[in-house]
Design a protein that fits this description.
With about 240 residues, the chain is α/β, with parallel strands linked by helices. The protein has a domain at about 30-85 and about 145-230: Rossmann fold. It is built from ten helices and nine strands. It has helices at about 20-25, 25-30, 50, 65-75, 105-115, 135-140, 155-160, 175-185, 190-205, 220-230, and strands at about 55-60, 80, 85, 100-105, 120-125, 130-135, 145-150, 165-170, 215. Strands 2-7-1-8-9 form a five-stranded parallel β-sheet, with helices on both faces. A four-stranded mixed β-sheet has the order 4-3-6-5. Helix 4 packs across helix 10. The two termini are about 30 Å apart. Bound molecules: guanosine-5'-monophosphate (5GP). Guanosine-5'-monophosphate (5GP) binds near residues 62, 66, 131 and 150.
């Protein structure tokens, strides 16, 4: 990514590879990244190409503002369907089960994985598991709705494999220093957790060229407008 706040957003020229072994170390070496090595079951029929095109996958490093930008899109366009992930991490103060996440224990997450209920899943920040329930995504796309997934890099790579027609958007910070400032400013993580997240962020930033497009989150309003444009929503 660019560290120059004035630099324009860069369109990736290289799509996220569809060969897991070539692109995703987690697919062959679970210890190499934060992501789980195990693959989600993908035997279920994926949405057709047309439906897939209505799906936007928003990824980017921790604290870059993915949640803020996707919530802003939802406020402006309530018709956009925003996926609610399952996670094994504990809720933060103010987070509501079923709204921000489906908070589940390890046994329930294991069950969802075994039953093939997750479109993708990953261990994020070497700590908790996060995954996208498959059924609601399929349903939203079948209903003809624009759908948005806000997930980590490993999850984005998995979705690229099963739904290659989806649109993959990378949200980048204006600079590394700004990313660190936002993470510290958020104040929701311990120092140890922050370090872990920054280590993941470094690796995630390097993956920017795998995405169809990059949006620099230098201003939430501007980044939101750009995401709206990328999603093809009426302006
Ligand atoms: P947080 O714990 O701050 O809510 O989220 C940590 C990270 O997990 C973020 O980078 C977020 O994008 C990612 N994440 C949230 N939901 C999912 C999901 O369903 N799948 C994957 N792969 N990552 C997710």
């Amino acid at each position: 990514m660019s560290t120059d706040p004035d630099a324009p957003s860069v369109d990736g020229t290289e799509p996220i590879a569809t060969d897991p072994a070539a692109s995703d170390p987690a697919a062959t070496d679970p210890a190499a990244t934060d992501a789980a090595g195990a693959e989600p079951a993908t035997a279920q029929p994926a949405a057709t190409g047309d439906a897939q095109r209505r799906l936007t996958v928003l990824a980017g490093p921790t604290a870059v503002g993915k949640g803020t930008v996707s919530a802003a899109v939802r406020r402006l366009y309530p018709q956009v369907w925003l996926s609610v992930s399952a996670t094994t991490r504990a809720p933060r103060p103010g987070e509501v089960d079923g709204v921000h996440y489906h908070f589940v224990d390890d046994a329930e997450f294991d069950r969802m994985v075994a039953a093939g209920e997750l479109l993708e899943w990953a261990v994020v920040h070497r700590r908790a598991r996060y995954g996208t329930p498959r059924g609601p995504v399929q349903q939203a796309l079948e209903e003809g709705r624009a759908a948005l997934l806000e997930i980590d890099l490993q999850g984005a790579r998995q979705v690229r494999r099963s739904m290659p027609e989806a649109h993959f958007v990378f949200l980048a910070p204006p600079s590394w220093d700004e990313l660190v400032r936002r993470l510290v400013g958020r104040g929701t993580e311990t120092a140890e957790e922050r370090e872990r997240r920054l280590a993941t962020a470094r690796a995630e930033l390097a993956a920017e060229p795998e995405f169809d497009v990059t949006i620099v989150n230098d201003d939430v309003g501007r980044a939101t407008a750009e995401l709206v444009r990328q999603m093809g929503l009426p302006v």
